[in-house]
């Protein structure tokens, strides 16, 4: 419930060159603000849950070059493994779901996610 405060502080204090909203939980409006400022958003497996339409809407509001995938946040397991602790193995389900949502091939989306990750973390 601190999205507005977070955006205000980033704007007032100056956001880091590479700002990432980890475990993005915002709505389309926050995603649009992120896109406007070039801030990244990292989505976890919870975007695969049927009730999280607002999260999927936010995901689709971002340009692909600003999207990341959460790999091991313990409570963000994608639908096939819901109820189990999340771990890096489950990111494949999240990334596949993201590609389907965007209507692009999995291999193409993996290349984009890889490029985004390298850009953010400098690897």
Can you tag this structure with a few keywords?
three-stranded parallel β-sheet, mainly alpha, 5 helices, 123 residues
Describe, in plain words, how this protein is organized in 3D:
The chain starts with a helix and ends with a helix. It contains five helices and three strands; from the N terminus they run αβαβαβαα. Strands 1-2-3 form a three-stranded parallel β-sheet. Helix 3 (53-61) links the parallel strand 2 and strand 3 (67-69). The model has no long low-confidence stretch (mean pLDDT 93). It has helices at residues 3-13, 28-37, 53-61, 91-102, 106-121; strands at residues 20-21, 40-43, 67-69. With 123 residues, the protein is mainly alpha-helical. Helix content is 47%, strand content 7%. Helix 2 (28-37) runs parallel beside helix 3 (53-61) and helix 4 packs across helix 5 (106-121). It is globular and about 40 Å long. The chain has one domain (15-121): Metal-dependent hydrolases (TIM Barrel, Alpha-Beta Barrel). The longest helix has 16 residues, at 106-121.
């Amino acid at each position: 419930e601190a999205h507005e405060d977070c955006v205000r502080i980033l704007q007032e204090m100056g956001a880091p060159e590479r700002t990432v909203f980890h475990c993005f939980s915002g709505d389309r409006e926050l995603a649009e603000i992120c896109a406007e400022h070039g801030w990244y958003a990292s989505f976890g497996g919870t975007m695969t849950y049927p009730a999280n339409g607002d999260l999927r809407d936010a995901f689709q509001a971002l340009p692909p070059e600003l999207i990341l995938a959460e790999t091991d946040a313990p409570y963000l397991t994608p639908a096939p493994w819901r109820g189990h602790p999340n771990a890096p193995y489950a990111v494949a389900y999240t990334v596949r779901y993201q590609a389907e949502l965007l209507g692009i091939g999995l291999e193409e989306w993996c290349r984009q996610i890889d490029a985004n990750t390298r850009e953010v973390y400098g690897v």
